[in-house]
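Need a sequence for this fold. Nothing fancy.
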């Protein structure tokens, strides 16, 4: 099986497509140990709209793919064009901005579909976005890992309240706390954090590799994620570590409006006791431990079952 990932270069999107591709290779190798499998990536972020519509990966020397994977709105046209030119399957790891009927399958977080808005037949709903995290139950769990997002469509930003929560974690934590930021984190946050919580080890997002979060999740005894960072919440849940939620204010632009899809999805996780809010933790000083999510493997099994030609 030859898989081609059409990428926009963004870490979150690559985590989804690489995670699914790796899961497909794992499951295919179990079913047919002798088959040759490979994954290739092409970056289309620099292409114009017209170039994406005509994209065939010409001149790159890639083997003919059996499957094209993509994530990110800017990859849709190029992925569909490449799949059409190579007469192969095209699967998107998100709710696409183009009609879902154009894709052979859409791997979509269930919070993207509200009640009364059922998913089409070629949509597989997952608990959050699939990702590249693989649970490591046998590795030594040492540090607390903190993942910081930033202002978003659903949530605003209150630096003082966030640092107050982190200061409280420092007070009650016996081990090392390692924190990383995201592209959305305001620029002055790290300096303010250093002044208030000097014991926290900070690794800014610009200093991290593609696999940094996954590697640190494998050794984290617990994980705290800001409320806005839904993809990182699900990556943490996939690792099997207990997950706490650092609370963020609602975006003022959403005041008086119904909760957005991110808020709905997170509220469901809280209701199911899969994550613990900071306010809940203040009462118990404990995070709930849960079984790891295995959504990439579940999606891979679904794909191989419904598209058996991938194994031939």
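Here you go.
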């Amino acid at each position: 099986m030859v898989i081609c990932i059409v990428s926009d270069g963004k870490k979150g999107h690559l985590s989804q497509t690489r995670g699914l591709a790796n899961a497909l290779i794992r499951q295919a190798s179990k079913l047919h140990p002798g088959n040759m499998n490979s994954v290739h990536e092409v970056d289309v972020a620099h292409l114009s709209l017209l170039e994406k519509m005509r994209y065939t990966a010409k001149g790159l020397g890639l083997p003919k793919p059996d499957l094209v994977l993509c994530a990110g709105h800017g990859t849709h046209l190029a992925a569909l064009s490449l799949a059409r030119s190579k007469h192969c399957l095209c699967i998107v790891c998100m709710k696409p901005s183009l009609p879902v009927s154009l894709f052979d399958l859409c791997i979509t977080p269930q919070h993207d579909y509200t009640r009364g808005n059922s998913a089409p037949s070629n949509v597989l709903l997952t608990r959050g976005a699939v990702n590249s995290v693989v649970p490591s139950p046998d590795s030594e769990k040492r540090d607390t890992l903190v993942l910081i997002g930033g202002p978003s469509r659903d949530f605003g930003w209150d630096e003082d309240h966030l640092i107050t929560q982190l200061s409280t974690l420092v007070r009650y934590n016996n081990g090392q706390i390692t924190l990383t930021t995201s592209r959305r984190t305001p620029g002055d946050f790290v300096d303010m954090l250093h002044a208030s919580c000097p014991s926290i080890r900070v690794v800014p997002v610009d200093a991290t590799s593609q696999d940094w979060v996954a590697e640190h999740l494998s050794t984290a005894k617990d994980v705290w994620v800001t409320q806005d960072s839904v993809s990182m919440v699900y990556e943490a849940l996939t690792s099997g570590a207990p997950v706490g939620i650092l609370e963020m204010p609602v975006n003022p632009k959403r005041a008086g409006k119904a909760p957005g899809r991110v808020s709905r999805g997170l509220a469901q996780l809280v209701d199911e006791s899969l994550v613990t809010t900071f306010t809940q933790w203040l009462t118990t000083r404990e995070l709930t431990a849960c079984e790891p999510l295995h959504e990439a493997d579940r999606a891979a099994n679904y794909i191989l079952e419904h598209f058996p030609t991938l194994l031939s």
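For context: The mean pLDDT is 91.
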